[in-house]
Amino acid sequence: MLDKIFAGIPILALLAFVGWINVRVMEPDLWLVSLVVMGITLVFVWDELNTGGSHIEGKSDKDSED
């Protein structure tokens, strides 16, 4: 559960930062690129958290069950 919290905090910070930059710059192309990149990021993080993997520890939760 702690890994989900530690993954969520930077994602929320990144979303806030990208949103702030997009509001300040007001370029439609930047909005499009930001949405695509954030979408890819969210899909990757969601998939990684659902599989239970951890890049920091180098193993998944499923490995510790053996």
Topology:
Blueprint: H1 2-25, H2 28-51
Helix pairs in contact: 1-2
How much of the sequence lies in strands comes to under 5%
Number of helices: 2
Strand elements, count = 0
Number of domains: 1
Mean pLDDT: 81
What would you report as the Rg, rounded to the nearest angstrom? 15 Å
Q: How are helices and strands ordered from N to C?
A: HH
Query: Largest beta sheet, briefly?
Result: none
Distance between the termini: 20 Å
Structural class: mainly alpha
Low-confidence runs of at least 5 consecutive residues: none
Shape: elongated
Proportion of residues in helical segments: over 70%
Describe this structure in words.
- With 66 residues, the protein is mostly helical.
- The protein has one domain.
- 73% of the residues lie in helices and 0% in strands.
- It contains 2 helices and no strands.
- The protein has helices at 2-25, 28-51.
- Helix 1 (2-25) packs antiparallel against helix 2.
- The chain is elongated, with a radius of gyration of 15 Å.
- The two termini are 20 Å apart.
- The mean pLDDT is 81.
